[in-house]
Amino acid sequence: MQVPFNDLKRHYDSMAAELDAAALRVLRSGWYVLGPEVSAFEAEWAAFCGSKHCVSLATGTDALLIGLRALGVGPGDEVLTVANAGTYTTFAAHAVGATPRYVDVSPDTYTLDPALLAAAITPRTRVIVPVHLYGRAASLEAILAVAAAHNLPVLEDCAQAHGVRWGGRHVGTLGVAGCFSFYPTKNLGALGDGGALITNDAALAARVRQLRTYGWGAKYRTTVANGTNSRLDELQAAILRVKLQHLEAQNERRQAIAARYSAGLAGLAVQTPAPGASEQHVFHLYVVQVDAARRAAIQAALREAGIGTDIHYPFPDHQQPAWAERYADLRLPVTERLAASILSLPCYPELADAEVDAVVAALRTVLSADQ
Ligand SMILES: Cc1ncc(COP(=O)(O)O)c(C=O)c1O
Predict the structure, then answer these.
(1) How far does the centroid of ligand 1 lie from the alpha carbon of residue 88, in Å?
(2) Hey, which of 62, 79, 88 would you mutate to test ligand 1's pocket, going by the most ligand atoms within 8 Å of its Cβ?
(3) Of all protein residues, whose CA lies closest to atom 15 belonging to ligand 1?
(4) Ligand 1 atom nearest to 64, measured from its CA
(5) What is the mean pLDDT of residues 50-79?
(6) pLDDT band at 239, cuts 50/70/90?
(7) What whole-number distance in Å separates Cα of residue 13 and Cα of residue 50?
(8) What is residue 56's predicted lDDT score, i.e. its pLDDT?
(9) Among 56, 129, 131, 183, which residue has the most ligand 1 atoms within 8 Å of its CB, making it the best to mutate?
(10) Dihedral (C-alpha) 257, 260, 264, 266: value to the nearest 10 degrees?
């Protein structure tokens, strides 16, 4: 059986009639950027998350970048974050002239280890950016407590965590703001790029709104110098409005797939995700750990068996060639160990139980042949 790592065609097919109607509505409307669909989506996404404001943007990276800028983070400042989440926050920090400072992650949740946070804060620290990685909420309670003690804002990276809650509240509403990506593979994905920042702070939302449209105070009147063009278009907004109606059901299906994997893989030489409260994990990705020395062979054997896998992410931020020199002395033992041993298995709402079982069976064969 062929099991692709992801299959966006199936995803589209599962909602085709509604998506076609939404797209046609926009095509025929004659309004394509920042119009009624965008306003409606912003209102609906804010309501879904229980946030007062939502400002849609062009990408999730822009949500982080413009979020940092709107918080006044700039040259000389440090952004405290993790190094295992695909460099997006690093890019955003660099773009505003700030320096990322990395904290290691917890070996259980793969998210920012709150026990290491206080010691990483310096007089230059301006903001903390935890990442709700793979769809699991970071340890918000502890992170927010440290942040409050040091009077630092928490900007949540929710790009992989649509619909995740902490204590009944949606991620992105616990810190000062939450940054989302709507890249097509995300739990809530557009048909192209998209992003948003949610916040309960009206002044912050207004600054983000201004920064996304050339720094305009009024039309053609630029009143802040560091604005840009970062807009969601009408077509993506209309698509996202349709998909939002399916998000909860699709997240539940992802959780069921994850539970099936974890049960099926029990007893094998793979470490499955640590259990946790179901509201706190929507399994954007189902990530296991395997023996680092054998990972490449395991991945190749699975490929041979028709099973697609991926690695999120193989290179920690501090070891990226573009800037590794700066971090030559930095050791992040858990982050580095995970980068060498993690493996993402297919996990998307349209995956059939039989396909999950096929992945488990293939992994069992590969691991036993591997002993
Ligand atoms: C954790 C995380 N943060 C930020 C981003 C950036 O989002 P985008 O690709 O929309 O710029 C992504 C997705 O790519 C992500 O997975």
Answers:
(1) 6
(2) 88
(3) 159
(4) 4
(5) 98
(6) very high
(7) 30
(8) 98
(9) 183
(10) 100
Q: Does the pLDDT at position 60 exceed 70? A: yes
- Nearest residue (CA) to ligand 1, atom 7: 60
User: Whose CA is closest to 90, among 322, 332, 330?
Assistant: 322
pLDDT in tens, 75-118: 999 999 999 999 999 999 999 999 999 999 999 999 999 999 99
Residues 22 and 44: their CA atoms lie apart, in Å, by: 15
- CA-closest residue to ligand 1 atom 2: 159
Q: Which residues contact 331 (CB under 8 A, 6 or more apart)?
A: none
DSSP string, 108-150: TTSSB-GGGHHHH--TTEEEEE-B-GGGB---HHHHHHHHHHT
Lookup: tokens for 165 = 């809650």
Digit-coded pLDDT (tens) for 167-221: 999 999 999 999 999 999 999 999 999 999 999 999 999 999 999 999 999 999 9
Structural domains in the chain, sorted by start: 8-102+110-244 (3.40.640.10), 247-370 (3.90.1150.10)
Residues having CB within 6 Å of any atom of ligand 1? 59-61, 85-86, 88, 131, 157, 159-160, 181, 183, 193, 195
pLDDT grade, residue 369 (50/70/90)?
A: confident
Ligand 1 atom showing the smallest separation from residue 59 Cα: 10
Q: How far is the CA of 176 from the CAs of 32, 57, 114, 123, 138, in angstroms?
A: 31, 17, 18, 20, 15
